[in-house]
Fold these 2 entries.
Entry 1:
Amino acid sequence: MSANTKNIFFLGKGGVGKSTSSALTALYLSNLGKDVLLVSMDPAHNQSDIFEIQLSEKPVKLKDNLIAKEIDINFWIKKYLNDVESQIKHSYSYLTALNLENYFGIIKYSPGIEEYALISAYNEITESFQEKDYIIFDMPPTALTLKFFGLPKLSLLWLDKLLDLRNEIIKKREIITKVKFGTKEIERDKIINKLNKQISSYEKIKKEFEDKDKTKINLVLNPDKLSFSESGLIVKKLREFDLYIGNIIVNKYFPEFSVDQIEKNFNHTGMQLFPISEKPLLGINELQKYIGSVSFENYSI
Amino acid sequence: MSIFSKILSKIKSGWKYYDNAAKEKAVDVMEYELSEMENIFGLLVLGAFIGLPSPPMQITLDLIPEMEKHFIQMLHKVDTAESPISDLVSIFDVG
């Protein structure tokens, strides 16, 4: 992944305007001459409606310096499971593979598969679009987004324990081989290779998420109580994963609302305000007009 | 060859035989331990298939192609799960 590409994630309670805020940010940055990719990770896929252009897995040009794509979670789940299934068929005996086939039908509904599909998509996108200045991710609803951010840390906890046990197994196997055959040479353990590969992959992602210069996590909220309380939960959960909010975006802001409450609640100074719009923000022209009327002075991107 | 040398040679071969037998016994126990450790590893990774808490699914799925032996062992263990003592006794050659 390019060291210069910055990743910006937009998260928040459902309906607060994550998609609109990410669309405005993508347009604003491209207007500044930055090369931007906007990615809709939300299964609801509002970006197609906002830009009034049908988006898909294949990137679509919205204007100079700005392309956008939608992630189809089911496509990524299917792709991943097909890969695993073909590896099993390749390395297993016929009968065992046949037994496992019965399980594969239901694995796609297993907890954890959706966030892994998102992580796979994230990996592929950040690898494929290294030339971009910014990659902007419009994230799914809170529950799935938090699982996405928590997956590297949770996986590393498991992988470290499994690696410890695997190392003990290998040590024991070495002793047995030495006593039996007088030599320490044993076959390279394929499982330990795979564990190490997974560990380095998750460490890389975790490091990227934690790097405040590389990754900005933007919390979008509305000036209302429900949005406040869910945002508080998001901030708390992210801290558990050693992640912190880069910007707070107050969408549908109105002048009577005092931002002091947010500063106090979230211990965060300086925020981006997106005032409530009289017209619906649909289509690139309306979005551009709105950008012209908004100050981006406090936006740290 | 003198009688003394013959006796020494008999003692040496007897010792060698005893040493090999002891080593084999020790290795048998260690191999049992190893197979139990592999079984625990298998259960930790593949537990989802028999209703045990398991790591995030992608860890299991990533390792599964290399774990046919564990998978078979886990299913085999289901057969012997009801008589773990007899399994252990056969390893230590009791009775």
Entry 2:
Amino acid sequence: MIDMILETFETGTGFWHPLVWITVFVIIFLLVYIIRGFGEKKYKKGTGQTQAFLSGNKEYDKQLMHVQSSNLYWGWTESLKWVIDLLKKMHTGIVNDYVLWFVIVMGLLLVFVGLM
Amino acid sequence: MSAIMDMLLAHAPALIIAVPLLGAFLTPLISRVSEKGRNIFAILIVGITALFVFLLASDVLANGTVTYVFGSTAETVRQSTVIRILFEVDALSIFMAIIGVILSFVAVFYSYAFMKENTGLDKYYTLLLLMTTGMLGMMLTGDLFNFFVFLEITSIASAALVAFWTNKVKAVEAGFKYIVISTIGALFFLFAIALLYGQYDALNMAKIAQSIGLSGFTFLDKIALVIFIAALAMKGGLAPMHMWIPDAYGRAPASISLLLVGATQASLYGLFRIVFTVYGDVLTLPSVSVGWILVLLGLVTMLVGVIMAIIQTDFKRLIGYAAVAELGYMALAVGTGLTIVATADPMITLESAPFAMKAINGGLFHIINDALDVGLLFLVAGAVYYATKETSLNKLGGLARNMKYTTVFFIIGLLAVAGLPPFNGFASKLLIYESTYQLNPILAIVAILSSILLLAIFVKVLHAVFLGPSLPQYKQVREVPKSMLVAMAVIAGLIIVFGLFPQVIVTQLIEPAANALVNNGAYLQWLTGGL
């Protein structure tokens, strides 16, 4: 039973064993933790040491500093604007168009399968 | 005791449908006596159904396909005509039923607290149980017309549940769109059944499969196949016919979004069943490349799903698009399996082409993983809505401070859906990457790219909803009730177990299901052996 549970996951050309992976991960974590122990011990919580350095500018209220969802991945969405705009145009939200896509796909399939 | 168990086991296929159906109609009556009693009754009904599913699963996985004839013990095949409705439960059907019943149980358990403040819950639980009935019926039946009936039951119950929050215009609109799409899909499906019935005088899947094999794929068979694929691909949420999914998943109560994942997968199951079983004899021929249709639909679905998800600002719509992308993986993998055989040496069968089987294993494994991962994310979105009454990602923030357990569950769902080790999504995606690479490396590249984007999408949600400074409007927010946390914990637990011990799941559940899918001879065996 235990042998069956611990069996290696075969993928065809490779294999995967999560328990081995986790064991390695834990060992690495322990090593990092030990190395961390050799680090600077003068750290004082709640002092100027822990505050972010914002080039001398005054720090805004924390609530104003939350980066909202729409602002994330701006560069990515900007560079792929043409694809996104195309897809947005497809997604009209009108149910007639949803059915139209169904008809289009069915027509294409008919040609494809009809030629077989 | 043993005699009772034997009797229950013998009638388990019928009881799996009868129990939730009866429960659905008893729910309004019990609701009149006690509301709390009604909620517990619904949980009990789904629990009993789950017991029957697991009982039947142990039998099917140990002894092979179970065929259950309704209404009579007399012979079912007379003068080569199948005269009764029957359920044919093989390893694939029962695998799907296990997924369906897990989702249903978690949904009903989660609803206990999540829906507490709503009115009209007698209707809610009735519809939920009807939806469960329809979904399980689709998965177990061996009759095409019966499949259509269960498809309709599922669709009508689902549409009503999508529009359950009738005070929200968009929910009603989503429900309307859902019923239009479902009805059109189902009517075309019925038309395709009529084409086959007109030719072969049969509605039984095995009988039709046998007839198609003998007739050699007529022109009407081709038309019926096209309609089946288009209708079920639309119901199964494959692009570009996926657009109803974000509407429906996004507007339904979270517990129903979870169940809708199962209903969508039931349609996808129908698609695979028709391609592999009903048309199994002709579609594995080298000249017929229907596998490529599934591959292309899968590719488009993945790409459209992730690109649209990344720009969403509504929590549940975003998960809806991510769910679309996940459906693409299943179509891609199963299509790859079919294509490898169709393009290979004519002597190579599905069983002897190892990458074909690995692809199908990956596709089927991903069905259960997707149900768990996306399901968990919907439950988390529901928990966030329950606590804040907000779904806009632009307005949420800093909730990790108030909802620690929900945040942990979200992180588990995030890592699993993005296919990061050691969670379950990684195992199935690894199978998909390796097998699709054998067909064409570009397929694997697109699949990996989609996974990376899925990670980016949910990291964005993690940041927008849970991280960042504490916002004043959410200072009073508290963690959700325990029953909701338990429901999320059950799914998170399954995700971890499936991730840590993938080989057990593949050996015990997935491989038998994949073998049942590709080996349509076993599905047809009772026709020659008799019942």
